[in-house]
Amino acid sequence: MTEAFVAAIDQGTTSSRCIVFDADGAIVAVDQREHRQIFPKPGWVEHDATEIWSKVQAVVAGALAKAGLRPEQLSALGITNQRETTVLWDRSTGKPVHNAVVWQDTRTAALCTELGGADGQDRFRDRTGLPLASYFSGPKAAWLLDNVPGLRQRAEAGEIAFGTIDSWLIWNLTGGTDGGVHVTDVTNAGRTMLMNLETLQWDSSILSAMNVPEAVLPEIRSSAEVYGTAVGQLAGVPVASALGDQQAAVFGQTCYGVGEAKNTYGTGSFLLLNTGTRPVPSQSGLLTTMGYQLGGERPVYCLEGAIAITGALVQWFRDQLGIISAAPEIEPLAASVEDNGGAYIVPAFSGLFAPYWRSDARGVITGLTRYVTKAHLARAVLEATSWQTREVVDAMYQDSGVEITSLKVDGGMTENNLLMQHQADVLDVPVIRPVIAETTCLGAAYAAGLATGVWSDLDELRAHWKKDAEWTPRMEPAVRDREYANWRKAVERSFGWHEEGAD
């Protein structure tokens, strides 16, 4: 093969990165820049989409310079992005009509309650796989249309474009006001609450209910195909993939078979399980979501479980309690004792996400005796992450009947060997960490390279994926069952602490 390079843009919540990969899937160069977080009111979170586009251009130039490559040496460009963040812009000027409304923003909570009506948050779940929540981008678009003066009329006249960040970047990359392509992929469209999971098209009845005119919407395409050709600094490079960040991690972790799963450990954690070519409805507090779609092939679906607090619990242990001064100190402290000493910490700091969705829950520490030391608490902090993951995996099995065969892991907490061993123990499956931890960018690059012939098929991508470390279960089944029962008791103690309006 002639030497080939694929670039991937990862436009995240706090920063933008560009990584250049070679034909073996190895990293050649990385560049990264942060952008501002804008907080106009309590619960409101915004980004300046123009600033994001500027930072993306800067990191692309930076990565190419570090790699010593010219644009014409790139075979393809892929994009992965923060998923539900919403932008509306003027098609003729190319300028956003308002700051982007970020996925974390909660201003649409009342609108979502109103939309739910008598059906509640499940009103659209059978078609979208999602509960009505301020998290998703359809209600954000509706809010902007209703609250920016004159915007609804301009939108209905076809003057305004809606998109998640992938659409905004692809439009700008391919020419913007001069012929820019207005598209999104199934993984991002699926997080708007406006796409039907079965048809992979915008759902007219939901658009009508949310009062979002179809004229603003991008065309829905697969996750791996050439959407258009870049202009400007990347002139001539095919723009050939788009995937929401968690789906890109699934693809980068090569979770291509039913039962393969990945967990990304950050501030919170996102666990996605490949359930195959049919969407699996959740009765257990999970999201039914797109996994990916390659060109004209059948789409692949996932169940997704979101855990609010994992890495953030270690930060709390460090910053609020002061027991450690740096996050890596928790591992040797926790390893200095054999077990948790009977103590459990449930980090329901602002309620519990999957599989409970209990906004009345608050954090608890249970099982304390005078025997318990700070080392036992350190161990309980780490174990809280693996027990919460176990609960999501159990919910996935209840919904799908699919047993996970292994768990591929990425994110900062995977450096903690004690935690990864405990994760394998409580799941009773191998836990595997890849050589390349930048799995979101890798997934976007893999999809773009598949679409442009850099790689031939999924088997070739599997061959490039390299294991860095693997942990296999060592815990006795009786111990696992007893500890899990204790964890479930601790979780129950967290319920009912917060009453609505008590803050």
Protein architecture, described:
Helices cover about 35% and strands about 20% of the residues. It is an alpha/beta fold. It has a 7-stranded mixed sheet. The protein has a 6-stranded mixed sheet with strand order 3-2-1-5-12-11, with helices on both faces. A two-stranded antiparallel sheet has the order 4-7. α13 (about 415-425) links the parallel β19 and β20. α9 (about 245-250) packs across α14 (about 440-450), α10 packs antiparallel against α12 and α12 (about 375-400) packs across α13. The mean pLDDT is about 95.
Write the layout of secondary structure elements.
Blueprint lengths: L4 E7 L3 E8 L4 E8 L11 E2 L1 H19 L6 E8 L4 E5 L9 E2 L7 H8 L8 H4 L8 H11 L3 H6 L3 E5 H9 L9 E3 H4 L14 H7 L8 E3 L2 E6 L8 E7 H8 L7 E6 L3 E8 L10 E6 L7 E8 L3 H9 L10 H6 L8 E3 L17 E3 L7 H27 L5 E5 L6 H11 L3 E4 L4 H13 L6 H7 L2 E5 L5 H17 L10
Helix pairs in contact: 9-14, 10-12, 12-13
